[in-house]
Amino acid sequence: MTNRQLENYRQAFEELNSILEMNFEAITIANSEGIFTKISKSFEEKFGITQSDIIGQSAFKLEKEGFFDRSVTCEVLKKKKKVTIIQKAAANKILLVTGIPIFNKNKEIQKIINISKDITETKKLESDLNNLQIEHEWLKQELFKRTNDKDRITYESVAMNNIVTLIDHVAKMDATVLLLGETGVGKGFITKLVHEKSGRRDGPFITINCGAIPENLLESELFGYEKGSFTGASKEGKKGLFEMAENGTIFLDEIGDMPLSLQVKLLHVLDERKVRRIGGFKSIDVNARVIAATNKNLKELVKKGDFREDLFYRLNVVPITIPSLRERKEDLPSLINMFLSKTNNKYGVKKTISEEAMRSLYDYEYPGNIRELQNLIERLVITTIGDKIEAAKVFDIIEPIQQKNMQDIIPLKEAVEQLEKKLLLSAFKKYKTTRKVAEALQIDQSTVVKKANKFQLKTNIAKI
């Protein structure tokens, strides 16, 4: 080999070294057996690996030892072509690596040049972006749920499933709906559900409690008045609620408390779809769906002459009776969890309910229905010190209510059962086993087990 040829090789070697030293990308060179022969200075700086750590090492061995999860050098030797992979390397680095084979004249791989780009931060940003997109979607769904609570109802019972199925059917028709049921069963909630599932969902939803407003004011609220029609009237007059509910829904709550004198006018509105303001002479067309609700027995009121029979039949087109909470106790767990979650979010706490406390809540009769349950859960969350609501705290609240209810005249058999149930709950809480409970109550152990099953106390107490 001539001196000129040697000089050319030396210059090429120095140029290669310069490229390796100056290149911003991390570069490694391996031979045909996958042994690393050279690494760039940038590789050392980026990955904290010295030349002595990697030069002379086999890519196959480093891959096996977990230096990286996949070796691009090994992939190039297997596939005999250029390969690009995502590689997880030591020190939690994520690399985009391209392996380029260099062939000799016999088309055999002579060496492999690997160019590695550190994309750890890029992948992290990609992951963060993905997480943000997931969080954004979750927030959108939560916002949709919260702004559409009217569309949601928590239930497990067959009775409520039948009601929701009926609502889905009748909501799309403009028929008058009459909701019946005790105070607190959720008649207002069901009304909003009907409105939101109807073709009037984009129209106004107007509600008025017919039993909470004096008769003289109720008429002006419902039907409006013309200017100067009575002392104190607005100079411009006032629209009534039927006019304000145009193309929407008007909810007449506690319809059983409406005075007879106004029942006649309401019947006229339902028949003619027109209202006449107080002091007015012309009729105004109205287009509003009417939903009425009451906790009273309208048929009994009709018999007594306190409610017009013709109005009753006009309202009773689609009657829906909402059962009390004690008639659908299978709905209690989901309702309790829903109210607990909402109350925790409201006050920024994370209270939970013990198994015994849950049983106590399940055994209570809820004379105030869902409204009472919601109030009870909020009181428990607020007054409980610590993170767990225990049965003792439940008893502190419901026991005075039960004692007050016991003052009412009820069948003797029912009163005896209530007392037995209460005594058993207290005894199990204190003594834990059926044998000790039987001794304390001075009855047979088999009787304790039998009555616990009868009252569905669901105790996990040992029988010894």
UniProtKB/TrEMBL annotation:
<keyword id="KW-0805">Transcription regulation</keyword>
<keyword id="KW-0547">Nucleotide-binding</keyword>
<dbReference type="InterPro" id="IPR025662">
    <property type="entry name" value="Sigma_54_int_dom_ATP-bd_1"/>
</dbReference>
<dbReference type="InterPro" id="IPR003593">
    <property type="entry name" value="AAA+_ATPase"/>
</dbReference>
<dbReference type="InterPro" id="IPR025944">
    <property type="entry name" value="Sigma_54_int_dom_CS"/>
</dbReference>
<dbReference type="GO" id="GO:0005524">
    <property type="term" value="F:ATP binding"/>
</dbReference>
<protein>
    <recommendedName>
        <fullName>HTH-type transcriptional regulatory protein TyrR</fullName>
    </recommendedName>
</protein>
<keyword id="KW-0058">Aromatic hydrocarbons catabolism</keyword>
<feature type="domain" description="PAC">
    <location>
        <begin position="79"/>
        <end position="131"/>
    </location>
</feature>
<dbReference type="InterPro" id="IPR027417">
    <property type="entry name" value="P-loop_NTPase"/>
</dbReference>
<feature type="domain" description="Sigma-54 factor interaction">
    <location>
        <begin position="153"/>
        <end position="382"/>
    </location>
</feature>
<dbReference type="InterPro" id="IPR025943">
    <property type="entry name" value="Sigma_54_int_dom_ATP-bd_2"/>
</dbReference>
<dbReference type="InterPro" id="IPR009057">
    <property type="entry name" value="Homeodomain-like_sf"/>
</dbReference>
<dbReference type="Pfam" id="PF18024">
    <property type="entry name" value="HTH_50"/>
</dbReference>
<feature type="domain" description="PAS">
    <location>
        <begin position="12"/>
        <end position="60"/>
    </location>
</feature>
<keyword id="KW-0804">Transcription</keyword>
<dbReference type="Pfam" id="PF25601">
    <property type="entry name" value="AAA_lid_14"/>
</dbReference>
<keyword id="KW-0238">DNA-binding</keyword>
<dbReference type="InterPro" id="IPR058031">
    <property type="entry name" value="AAA_lid_NorR"/>
</dbReference>
<dbReference type="InterPro" id="IPR035965">
    <property type="entry name" value="PAS-like_dom_sf"/>
</dbReference>
<dbReference type="GO" id="GO:0006355">
    <property type="term" value="P:regulation of DNA-templated transcription"/>
</dbReference>
<dbReference type="Pfam" id="PF00158">
    <property type="entry name" value="Sigma54_activat"/>
</dbReference>
<dbReference type="GO" id="GO:0003677">
    <property type="term" value="F:DNA binding"/>
</dbReference>
<dbReference type="InterPro" id="IPR030828">
    <property type="entry name" value="HTH_TyrR"/>
</dbReference>
<dbReference type="InterPro" id="IPR000700">
    <property type="entry name" value="PAS-assoc_C"/>
</dbReference>
<keyword id="KW-0067">ATP-binding</keyword>
<dbReference type="InterPro" id="IPR000014">
    <property type="entry name" value="PAS"/>
</dbReference>
<dbReference type="Pfam" id="PF13426">
    <property type="entry name" value="PAS_9"/>
</dbReference>
<dbReference type="InterPro" id="IPR002078">
    <property type="entry name" value="Sigma_54_int"/>
</dbReference>
